């Protein structure tokens, strides 16, 4: 009776060892860096990573329980990955969790999680462009909000950040290096495009 039990147990154990063991060190840190519809996960490399080391990234929409692999992120030797396409609904969601691990051949590391959940609060506000025109001694400036082409129709900067349309303007006279700060914290007329 005993040998019959021992065989399946040994088979189970060897299966465990054949599956990818957690032997690599995990990436020391991971964090999000995002601008409007440009959402990027960054991580630091494992010590002594080799040419064959790559990283796997998975994403979880907050409130759900299915981790989704992001195949685009599994390329050597990337230390960041653009998650914009996978998080297009960020501004209408409660955010996302991400995790990253190192893989080398049959070895993989434990997962590293960024310390924060990725929400729209993590998104750094930017200006798309500024156009200046000079007419009879008067400089007129037009501020254009960012217009990323991947943003779904209707997801404009103005509709998503209705309360963040205040700009600080700095005016510098060249060639003198002195800096004049005009209208500190002033709210300027805004010209949506
Ligand atoms: C992976 O995580 C397990 C459980 O937390 C831990 O016991 C193990 O030491 C970790 N392995 C590495 C290589 O950090
Ligand atoms: C990295 O490689 C160096 C030189 O080969 C070795 O001394 C060091 O212990 C290695 N570090 C780790 C964390 O494996
Ligand atoms: C990755 O795998 C290669 C080939 O098996 C090995 O030479 C190298 O030492 C491994 N690197 C790490 C960081 O474990
Ligand atoms: C993956 O990469 C391809 C080519 O660079 C790109 O067209 C596609 O949108 C990416 N998919 C995701 C989910 O980021």
UniProtKB/TrEMBL annotation:
RNA-binding in keyword set = no
> Domain Fibronectin type-III: where?
7-111
Q: Kindly state which keywords UniProt assigns to this record, in alphabetical order.
A: Disulfide bond, Receptor, Signal
- InterPro entries in the record: FN3_dom (IPR003961), FN3_sf (IPR036116), Ig-like_fold (IPR013783), Type-II_Cytokine-TF_Rcpt (IPR050650)
Name of a matching Pfam family: Tissue_fac
Membrane-spanning residues: none
Q: Which residues form the signal peptide?
A: 1-21
What GO MF terms are annotated? interleukin-10 receptor activity
Cellular component (GO) terms are: plasma membrane
Q: Which domain of life is it from?
A: Eukaryota
Q: Which family does it belong to?
A: Belongs to the type II cytokine receptor family.
Q: What is this protein called?
A: Interleukin-10 receptor subunit alpha
Q: What is the organism field in this record?
A: Camelus dromedarius (Dromedary)
Q: What is the lineage of its organism?
A: Eukaryota, Metazoa, Chordata, Craniata, Vertebrata
